[in-house]
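Listing S7. Sequence submitted for prediction.
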Amino acid sequence: MNETWNLKEMKKLIPLALPVLVVNLSIVGMGAVDAIVAGRAGVTDMAAVALGSSVYLPVALFACGVLMIIGPVIANMRGKSHESRVGYMTNHGLWLAFMLSLVSMPVNYVLRYVFGWISADAAMWGLPANLGFVALKSLNEGSNMTRPAMYVGLCGLLLNIPLNYMFVFGMYGFPRMGGAGCGAATAVIFYIEFLLMFLLVYCNPKHRPYRRHIISWRRPTT
């Protein structure tokens, strides 16, 4: 009996877990692409990108970790049939993402002067979009929808390859930025991913009741 129940649960969990795995692999893949492209630009560029990532990622992951509470809270609201509060929670999550970016970006900016030769600090300008993406992704995950983030993550990984070459080597009229181009490409991709996720959430009929909350600029309430 228990084995049958566990099998049924696994069949429900695997379709939800696999897209999350793909999203994480796409993030790792973007880092791998950065290292490969920066390495082609030069050993110094590759080392600078690696150091820049080691400074940027802890700050960004801390902010993303705070936002990860949104998904379970939304799932709890839906489980208790309090779906009328989901829109407000999503709006608060976007405000929280904005406030976390206001705190995190100055931290990265200060670290730029501590490590003056970091070349990946341009990625910090994409932090608001990255955190906004995480907030909207949490709405989907709290609604048992993990595939949209997978689609967006794969698009980001595919776009990372040409954008890195464009910014690092100065192709198609762009200035040659060297290793710093990896950070610039990452920042651009963050905004593209946020826009794609916003469109997927806003156009999804399941999220129709929350549309007005997503685009609302009213201040957070208790």
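Caption to Listing S7: primary sequence and predicted structure tokens for the chain studied. The helical segments are 2-41, 43-67, 70-79, 86-114, 127-142, 147-169, 180-203, 211-214. Residues 2-41 form the longest helix (40 residues).
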